[in-house]
Specification:
Distance between the termini: 22 Å
Strand content: under 5%
Helix content: 40-55%
Order of helices and strands: HHH
Radius of gyration: 12 Å
Structural class: mainly alpha
Number of strands: 0
Number of domains: 1
Shape: flat
Length: about 55
Amino acid sequence: MMQTLPAEWRSALGSRLSGADIEKLEEFVFVERAQAQVFPPDEDVFAALRLTPPDQV
């Protein structure tokens, strides 16, 4: 999931993206997607961030 986050957002968010909380979130979403249909699709999770660079926020 985090691999779909645009690089400029990964850079802007820095250390907030590391650690156990993000790993738990990714694991939770992975399990949920294995059990049911989850929206948005994985490739669209960060669509808003792809359309809005950090320097425009």
